[in-house]
Each structure stands twice: as C-alpha cells, then as structure tokens.
Design a protein that fits this description.
Chain B: Keywords: Ubl conjugation pathway. The complex is a heterodimer of chains A (about 450) and B (about 160). Chain A is mostly helical. Chain A is built from 15 helices and two strands. Classes of the chains: A mainly alpha (about 450), B alpha+beta (about 160).
Chain lengths: ~450, ~160
C-alpha cells in the first residue's frame, strides 16, 4: 500500500515545491474564467464557471482528511466512499470531497441571508471558487429574483404612499362636504358651474393636505404659518370685500387669527388656574387652597366665558365664504386644546388621542352646525350651512374648554375634600353576614 | 436524500468517536453515544477550566445531533446546573454562536465541547441567558461573580458528587 502511495506523495511534494508558481497559475486560471463569464463573476465573486476538464491538478497526500465527512484518503483505500473526488479549494490545509463540499454549499444557500455572500473556507476565509454549467435561463431567473427583491420595498412604499394619498384626498372631500354643505362644496370642488370639473393643482395638493393640517394644527408646529396658508391658497381668487356674513374664504383666513386671539386670552386668564388645578390633581399635589382662591376662580371662569362668547360671536359675524380645501384644516386649527402643554407632539396614547380628535373634528363641527340649524333664530341670521358649522365648531371648542376646566376644578375640589375614615368595628359587617346566613 | 444524509452523519460520527478515543481532549472527561442503538444522542462530561472559578467541576452535557449533522450543528445543553452568563440556569441552554450561526462542518463534537470550555472563561455578558450573573460581571463585581460560581461548582458540579451518584 505504501509503495502505491509513494509516487503520489512525491508528485505532491514536487507540486508544493513550486507552490508559488501553481498559485499564480491558479490566479491566471480564475482570471481566465473571469473573462469567460464576465457577467456572473462580476456579481458573484464566489461563483465561477469554468469547464470541468480545466480544473487544476489536486495535490494528494495519504493524511489528507475531508473537513466535512472527516474521512481520510487512507480510509478510502480500505472502504471506497461515494463522496467524489478530492478538492483543495483554498490555499490553507483544508481538503474535502467534492460531494461533501457541494452538499455543504447547497445547505449554505438554503439560508436566504447568505444567498448573495461568497462561499468562504471556514478556516482561511478565502473565497471558494465553484464551477457550474452556464444557463441563460438560470441567470435570467436569478436576476429577476434579485430585481424583484429590490423593487419590492419600493413598491410597498409607493403603494402605501398612494393609499395614504387617496385616503387623505377622500377624507378632504368628505370634510369639505361636511363643513360647507353640498352646494358650496360642489362649487369648490367641481367649479362654479358644477360642470367644468378640473383637477387643478389646488385640489390635488389641498385636498390630501386637509387631514395633515388638521392633525398638525393640534400641535405647535405650524402656529407661525397657519394664518398665512389660507391667504396663499384661496384669497387671490376673489376680490377682497366684506359682506355680512363674510364669505367662506375670508372666514377661513380669519379663523387662525381668531384662534390665536382665543388662545392668548386663555393663556392669560385661565392658564394659571388650569395649571394650578392640574398640579393639584397630579400625584405630587399637596396643597390646600383657601376659600378666597375658590371664589377668585369662579369669578375668573365667569369672566372668561364672557370674553370667549364675545369672540365667538365676532367670529360668527365675521364668517365669510369660499374655498374649502382649507375649511377642514382651519376648523381643526380652531380646536385647540385646553392647555398648551398638551399640544406638544409626543408619541404615545396622547398622540393617538390627538390624531383621532383632529380627524373627527369636521364631523363634530358638522353635527354642531346641524344642531344650530334646528334653531329658527340662528337659521334666520345664518342661512348658509357653512356659517352655522363654523359657529358650531367654535361653540364646541368653547364648551369643551369650559367643561375641561370645570372638571379639573371639581376634581381639585374633590381632592381637597378628602379625609380618611376612622376604622369602624366589624359589627355592621357581622350583621350582614348573619343576614346572608339566614337567607341561606 | 434523508437516508443518505443520515448515513453520512453516522459515518462521520463514528469517525469522530474513534478519533476521540485515540486522542485525548483535556476538556472532556467522557464522550460518546448514550447507547449503541442511537448514535445521534450523545452525552459528555465537560471539565471546568483550570485556574478559573470553574476548576474542579464536571458538568454533564446532553448532545443531540441532527440528521444532516456535519452541515447543521449539534444541540448541546447542560444537564448539571451551570452558573454562567450565557447558560440558562434552568434549561441548561447555551448561547454560543458556534452552536448556531457560526457553525461549520469543520468542527466536531469533541471540539465543540472544547469551545464550550473556552466559553466558561470568556463569557459574553451582553447576550446573557442568566441575567443575574451577567449583571454581576458587567458591574465589575468579580469577587461576587467568582464566589457565586464557586458555590454552584461546589454545590452541583463537584466531581466526587457526580461519580458518587
């Protein structure tokens, strides 16, 4: 057996003696395959596709062991294996059967993450070169797979984006119809005659922006720009003239200012009390208010109500007419929250409240307007549904703020009235037990 | 395909077994199939690293080998209670990349046990299975860490106890 092996060993030694040369040969060889299969090799450095007959000679040694099945050449002399010929795919000491290597590689390719990685020797981390038949169909299929994977994310983003756009637009249209009533809304969306519908940039941008602005207007992000927006969008379509009640365009342009005034008034007169009660309700509150304060509070509230009502009336009178893409938006801007701190955009349940509240606002406004429309007096003064809606929205905000404040005040008062009950003897309980026992 | 994969795995396991019986592995006290019927279920004894808190302990390992074995790693769990940041104290599960993503067929059962011994002295407290010990280690309390380990070694993994049992 040993004399059979001898020639092989010498040939291997000869080969190792000129190791550098054979390595450069191997380099040339892979270069040649590179040029032969430019496309595939450029994309997958680990996969080359030469012909089988061109494989470099494998050096042989009796001690060679397959690093996958752990069998050595010596074992094969005793019992033949079906693992194929020996391969030495890299410059380090690892040798293996071709069959074992192929099994290992196809197992590696099963995990999708390693699919596009070059196959590396586990020891020296050099790439293992692999040859396979060149097939146009396989190449085509692979490139399609790759491209599909790449375009999927783009398609998903685009799909979600357009879905969002469509939803926003539909929401915007609905908001306009809710706020302005059918007649006005038709005029806004379909054009003055209701027939020559044109998809103008104002509609394309304005409609989907409505829900966004509704939500954003609940935060302080747009405080500076909101008053200007309606002017940019709509006011240059009509000459500016005051009527009573004012046109929707002017109403909408005025609303952000009304809102700012209301907010300023609220912050000046009511915010201190609001804060005080809030901290009192809060877990760290341990304050006892005097009676004087209570009286003061109530006076303040009353005063504030009057102020606000004046404002609202002014708003209602100032109501005007026109474009709508912003009707919803500005109505949303009206719905400011009770306390400025709440208007910070924070992620969490508050954000959900804020978004839902903002998006429901047009509906609330419309139903308030509908309620107002039931009152004959208001119907007479404000024949247009739009004006009743705006007034209704303002009233809603006002009522909500008053209720919120009153609720806080009541809670604070309740907190102050708390006292601890003394322990009472169990006598009453026993009686209760006795009665239940008797019932049994 | 499965039968041939199974046959390949058995052949390789037999190779490993005979090689282990020829060469000594200082990290291993004993290693082999639980019974002659099933070559895919092994048991082994892991020796605690010398000059470490684990010195003197011997832990029984349960080694389950998959059908596509050299391609997929064996599943190794501690049967003796082991106090180590990367070992689950109750299930004996081991968090070691070699047993998951970093496995290659070039490793064997015996060298896997060696790698587990190496894990004893180079724990990865950032991916802990035993948060309590990992916290000790991360907070720099090496005295507490070492003595806790020594206690567990004394309590559960003393060689005398194991052989006596």
């Amino acid at each position: 057996m040993s004399h059979l092996q001898a020639p092989r060993s010498t040939s291997w030694r000869a080969a190792s003696g000129v190791a550098s040369e054979s390595e450069t040969d191997a380099g040339k060889y892979s270069d040649a395959t590179l040029t032969a299969n430019e496309d595939s090799s450029a994309e997958e450095p680990g996969l080359l596709i030469p012909l089988k007959s061109q494989s470099p000679p494998v050096v042989e040694d009796e001690d060679d062991k397959c690093w996958i099945c752990f069998e050595s050449r010596a074992d094969e002399l005793i019992e033949s294996s079906n693992h194929g010929v020996w391969r030495k795919p890299c410059k380090c000491a690892l040798t293996a059967h071709e069959g074992c290597l192929l099994d290992w590689i196809s197992d590696l390719e099963k995990t999708p993450s390693s699919m596009n990685k070059p196959i590396q020797c586990p020891q020296c981390k050099s790439n293992i070169l692999l040859r396979q038949e060149r097939s146009t169909i396989v190449e085509l299929g692979k490139s399609i797979e790759r491209n599909v994977r790449r375009t999927n994310s783009v398609a998903i983003v685009a799909g979600l984006g357009s879905a969002f756009f469509v939803t926003s637009t539909v929401y915007g249209v609905n908001a306009i119809y809710l706020i302005c009533g059918t007649k006005e809304a038709n005029a806004i969306i379909l054009g003055p005659g209701g027939r020559d519908f044109q998809w103008t940039w104002r509609l394309a941008v304005g409609l989907p922006v409505i829900p966004l602005i509704l939500v954003v207007s609940r935060t302080r992000l747009l405080d500076a720009t909101l008053p200007i927006l309606p002017l940019i969008f709509f006011c240059h379509t009509e000459p500016f003239h005051l009527t009573l009640p004012p046109s929707p365009a002017i109403t909408l342009a005025l609303l952000p200012y009304v809102r700012s005034i209301y907010e300023a008034a609220y912050n000046k007169f009511l915010l201190p009390w609001d804060k005080k009660w809030t901290t009192e309700i809060g877990p760290t509150a341990a304050t006892l208010a005097t009676d004087d304060n209570d009286v003061g509070l109530e006076i303040q509230v009353v005063e504030m109500d009057e102020n606000e009502e004046e404002e609202e009336v002014a708003n209602g009178n100032a109501d005007a007419h026109a474009p709508v893409a912003h009707a919803g938006a500005d109505a949303g801007a009206e719905g400011q929250d009770a306390w400025r701190v709440e208007r910070e955009l924070v992620l969490g349940p508050e954000t959900a409240n804020l978004v839902v509240g903002a998006l429901l606002f047009p509906g609330v406004v419309a139903s308030m307007g509908g309620l107002l429309g039931k009152i004959p007096f208001i119907r007479k003064i404000l024949p247009e549904r739009f004006h009743r809606n705006i007034l209704g929205g303002c009233l809603f905000v006002l009522i909500k703020d008053i209720f919120t404040l009153y609720y806080k005040y009541k809670r604070a008062k309740q907190r102050r009235s708390r006292e601890i009950l003394n322990y009472q003897k169990r006598a009453p309980r026993r009686e209760a037990n006795a009665t239940t026992g008797m019932r049994r | 395909m499965p039968p041939s994969a199974n046959a390949n795995a058995s052949r390789r396991l037999l190779q490993e077994l005979s090689k282990f019986n020829q060469e000594d592995n200082p990290a291993v006290t004993y290693l082999g199939p639980v019974d002659d019927e099933d070559i895919f279920h092994w048991r082994g004894g892991l020796r605690g690293t010398p000059d470490s808190p684990y010195e003197g302990g011997v832990w029984d390992l349960d080694i389950v080998i998959p059908d596509n074995y050299p391609l997929a790693p064996p599943t190794v769990t501690f049967m003796t209670k082991m106090c180590h940041p990367n070992v689950h104290i109750k299930t004996g599960e081991i968090c070691l990349d070699l047993l998951k993503s970093a496995w290659t067929p070039a490793y064997g059962i015996s060298s896997t046990v060696t790698a587990i011994q190496a894990l004893l002295t180079s724990p990865e407290p950032d991916s802990p299975l035993n948060v309590d010990v990992a916290t000790l280690l991360r907070s720099g309390d090496t005295v507490g860490y070492d003595s806790l380990i020594r206690y567990y070694v004394w309590r559960y993994a003393k060689k005398e106890r194991n052989t006596g049992a």
